[in-house]
UniProtKB/TrEMBL annotation:
Taxonomic source organism: Sphingobacterium zeae
One Pfam family in the UniProt entry: adh_short
Official protein name in the record: NAD(P)-dependent dehydrogenase (Short-subunit alcohol dehydrogenase family)
InterPro entries in the record: NAD(P)-bd_dom_sf, SDR_fam
Domain of life of the native organism: Bacteria
UniProt entry keywords in alphabetical sequence: Oxidoreductase
Family, per entry: Belongs to the short-chain dehydrogenases/reductases (SDR) family.
Length: 301
C-alpha cells in the first residue's frame, strides 16, 4: 500500500456509496474523489442548506456527478430511522456505507434521546444507521462498511459503569476517546458477526490522522491553533485512508487503516495496528448490547 493515492481507485460506475457528514472536511473530500470515480453518491447530512452547497461545489468540479441528498441527524434516532427508510425505499443496492460524520471534544450536551452527545452521535447513531441499512448492504455483492475511529482510541477505555457520563465530571476529550474507541470496537465486532453469519459484506475501520477540519472547532486554542497545524495534513490527504478502505480490492474484513507516517498522524494510508483494548471480546459483546438496548436496533444477520 506504499504511496497509495486516489489514482489507485478503480472506476466506480454503478457503485452506490452513502457517506455521513459528506458536506465538509474529510467527508466532503472523500465525496469529491468518489464522484470523480463515477460513484453514485448518497450524501447524508444534518443541514440541508450546507448539503446543497456541498453538492453544488462537487458538480462544479465533476459536472456529471450523480448525487442524492438525504437528511441525517445522528443525534436523533428518529432522523436516523427516517434516513434509513428513505434509502431503503429509493435504492435497490448499497455498495459502500462510510460512517464518517462525528463531533469532537464538544461541551457537554445530549442527543434528542438524552445520550451524551459524542457517544450518541459518533457511535450510537452510526450503530443504528448501519443496522437499519444492513439488509440492503447484505443483498449487494461485495459491499463494505467503513467506520471512522481516531488515534484517540489508543488512549481510551470504555467506562461501562458510566458510559453516558451521567455521574462523573464531564471531560470532553475523554468522552471523545471513548466514542472513537467504541467505533473501532463496533467495526471489529461487526466484522466478526458478518463472517460468522457467512455474509460476504465486510466491515473495516479507519482513522484519518490529524487534519484541520471543522471537527477541530471546539478543540481549544492550544490544540486547534498551535498543535494541529504543526502535525496535520490537509483534508484531501486525510481522506485517503477512508478512500482506500472503501474501494481497494485488497482490503479484507476486520482490518484497520490509517496514515502510515509518524504516529499515524499523516502520510500515505496503510495498515494500522489495533490497540489492545479494541480487541477485547468481552468489551465488544457488552458494548454491542449497550447500543442494542439504547437504540432499539437489533441486527438481522
Amino acid at each position: 500500500m506504499k504511496n497509495w493515492t486516489a489514482d489507485n481507485i478503480p472506476d466506480l460506475s454503478n457503485k452506490r456509496v452513502l457517506i455521513t457528514g459528506a458536506n465538509s472536511g474529510i467527508g466532503f473530500e472523500t465525496s469529491v474523489v468518489l464522484a470523480k470515480k463515477r460513484a453514485h453518491l448518497i450524501m447524508a447530512c444534518r443541514n440541508q442548506q450546507k448539503a446543497e452547497e456541498a453538492e453544488k461545489k462537487i458538480i462544479d468540479i465533476v459536472p456529471d456527478a450523480k448525487i442524492t441528498l438525504v437528511t441525517l441527524d445522528l443525534a436523533d434516532l428518529d432522523s436516523v430511522r427516517q434516513c434509513a427508510d428513505v434509502v431503503l425505499k429509493s435504492h435497490q443496492k448499497l455498495d459502500v456505507l462510510i460512517n464518517n460524520a462525528g463531533v469532537m471534544a464538544t461541551p457537554y450536551s445530549t442527543t434528542k434521546q438524552g445520550f451524551e452527545i459524542q457517544l450518541g452521535s459518533n457511535y450510537l447513531g452510526h450503530y443504528a444507521l448501519t443496522g437499519l441499512l444492513l439488509p440492503l448492504l447484505k443483498s449487494t455483492p461485495g459491499s463494505r462498511i467503513v467506520s471512522l475511529s481516531s488515534s484517540a482510541a489508543n488512549f481510551a477505555q470504555i467506562d461501562f459503569a458510566d458510559i453516558l457520563t451521567e455521574r462523573k465530571k464531564y471531560k470532553p476529550y475523554e468522552a471523545y476517546g471513548q466514542a472513537k474507541l467504541a467505533n473501532l470496537v463496533f467495526a471489529l465486532e461487526l466484522a466478526r458477526k458478518l463472517e460468522a453469519s457467512g455474509s460476504k459484506t465486510i466491515s473495516v475501520a479507519v482513522h484519518p490522522g490529524v487534519s484541520p477540519t471543522n471537527l477541530q472547532r471546539t478543540s481549544g486554542f492550544l490544540i486547534g491553533k498551535i498543535i494541529t497545524p504543526l502535525i496535520s495534513q490537509p483534508a484531501d490527504k486525510a481522506a485517503l485512508a477512508s478512500l482506500l478502505a472503501a474501494t481497494d480490492p485488497m482490503v479484507k474484513n476486520g482490518t484497520y487503516w490509517a496514515p502510515s507516517g509518524f504516529m499515524h498522524v499523516k502520510g500515505s494510508p496503510g495498515a494500522a495496528s489495533i490497540p489492545k483494548q479494541a480487541k477485547d471480546l468481552n468489551t465488544a459483546s457488552r458494548l454491542w448490547k449497550v447500543a442494542e438496548d439504547l437504540t432499539g436496533v437489533k441486527y438481522k444477520f
